[in-house]
Specification:
Blueprint (H helix, E strand, L loop, with lengths): L1 H13 L3 H23 L16 H12 L9 H11 L16 H9 L4 H27 L6 H9 L2 H9 L3 H16 L3 H8 L10 H9 L3 H22 L3 H8 L3 H7 L10 H9 L4 H23 L12 H22 L12 H9 L6 H16 L1 H7 L4 H20 L14
Helix pairs in contact: 2-7, 3-4, 3-5, 6-7, 6-9, 6-18, 9-10, 10-12, 11-17, 15-16, 16-17, 16-21, 17-18, 17-21, 18-19, 19-21
């Protein structure tokens, strides 16, 4: 089996020319852009397929309207939210009921856009997504630093990335979260740790993505970054309380108890749900949701162990100390593992959220992890492909993204061990173990 996989890999590499990739990526990008324009190029609220334009953006817009109208005390009243949603567009099979689930900072931010008619607000939001993704792509291309003949191909690979298309279709926050992650990690490795923590605290716009960085700071005893992280979180909470009243934080925390019930009753399609718990629930059915969640937690525990081995490759659990020189040598490995671990933790991981995989993909494609470049770039390509072929998952019935993330995180733990022990002979890249 290993020989067969080696033959497949060699065949792919021999046919991997920039011109071929440019053709396929350009065709894929143009197809997605045309489909997006056909779907969304209508006036008002409803698109050509009788769905709400921007889909999830309507949730942000409705919560923004509630804040705009001075009804902050009813922000997490789900029945009131349903009434306001139906004022925007009636609830049908193609336009399902939404819920007010985001922390109060998100409705406050969108209360400014809610001053515009829905169509104009959506165009402004899409323009903001373009700016965020453009800045992120510029940073990622600089990190990859491709050879001149591969530069256009690399840019196309990032622009055509399937989760980016889903972000625009769903009007989601992923472009902001990706830019926040990139900026925070850059500030951290340039030793602006406190500022990095403040920036990374903005991941709390989607709280499930704030847990991974918090655990990372604890595990590496990085109290300077943790201080900025906590201060940023407190500032967000204080701003929310000052704007909407002191009870809004308690309303939000109480509302969080309804989230598991909502997630149990609504599950994404196979091409859209990428957490291990969601994948198993899609495959096995809602009757096995508890079992699926238990398996998800086991996978998270395994991922946490591998993540710990990335931070402490020499196995020093009693000291819990990360040497600065070791971090500077391994920061690409550590930060890649952080992003993967953060995504693995989330019990609700949709396609647009997977756009954050561009960070470890860029580090792997850069070939600068002190491992053989072919190994890194091959692993980055596997991770990239897993997030690109979501349309195939609709036919297959389940997503391979969680498996690809777990496998890559495992390889990161091996990479960290090898760079920590450079005199040790490098092991063969265990592609045959897939």
């Amino acid at each position: 089996m290993s020989g067969r996989l080696q033959q497949i890999r060699d065949w792919i590499w021999h046919r991997s020319t920039p011109e071929r990739f440019q053709f396929y990526l350009a065709a894929y990008l143009i197809t997605n852009v045309v489909m997006f324009l056909v779907t969304e190029s209508t006036g008002g609220v409803i698109d050509r397929f009788d769905r709400v334009r921007g889909r999830d953006f309507s949730t942000f817009y409705v919560t923004g309207e509630i804040v705009r109208d001075g009804e902050g005390d009813r922000l997490y009243d789900q029945e009131h939210f349903r009434v306001r949603q139906e004022e925007l567009a009636s609830i049908t099979e193609k336009r399902p009921r939404n819920y007010s689930l985001y922390p109060p900072t998100v409705p406050i931010l969108f209360s400014w856009l809610a001053r515009f008619p829905y169509g104009q607000a959506l165009l402004i939001w899409w323009s903001g997504l373009v700016v965020c993704f453009t800045l992120s792509a510029w940073c990622l291309v600089r990190e990859i630093d491709p050879a001149p003949e591969w530069r256009v191909t690399t840019i196309l690979a990032i622009v055509a990335f399937t989760p980016i298309n889903y972000t625009f279709l769903n009007g989601q926050l992923s472009a902001i979260l990706l830019l926040v992650f990139i900026a925070g990690l850059y500030l951290h490795r340039t030793n602006h740790r406190f500022t990095a923590g403040c920036i990374l605290s903005l991941l709390a716009l989607k709280p499930q993505f704030a847990v991974g960085p918090f655990l990372w700071m604890i595990l590496r005893r990085d109290f300077r970054t943790l201080g900025g992280y906590c201060l940023g979180g407190l500032c967000q909470a204080g701003w929310s309380a000052w704007t909407l009243g002191s009870t809004v934080i308690f309303d939000y925390l109480q509302n969080m108890w309804t989230m598991p019930h909502i997630l149990r009753s609504t599950h994404p399609t196979p091409d859209h749900g990428h957490s291990l718990g969601e994948v198993l629930t899609i495959v096995l059915g809602n009757d096995y949701v508890n079992f699926a969640n238990q398996v998800h937690l086991i996978a998270v525990a395994v991922g946490a162990f591998w993540f710990f081995r990335v931070l402490h490759p020499k196995g020093r659990p009693l000291t819990w100390h990360v040497e600065e020189a070791e971090y500077q040598r391994n920061w690409r490995i550590e930060q890649s593992a952080l992003v993967l671990f953060t995504l693995l933790l989330s019990p609700h991981l949709l396609t647009y959220d997977v756009s954050m995989l561009l960070i470890p993909i860029a580090f792997l494609w850069s070939g600068k992890m002190n491992i053989e470049e072919e190994r890194e770039r091959w692993l980055g390509s596997v991770l990239y492909l897993s997030a690109m072929i979501t349309f195939i998952y609709y036919l297959v019935g389940f997503s391979l993204v969680p498996a690809a993330m777990l496998w890559t995180l495992f390889q990161m733990s091996r990479f960290a061990k090898q760079t920590a022990n450079p005199a040790q002979p490098k092991q063969e890249f265990a592609l045959q173990s897939i």
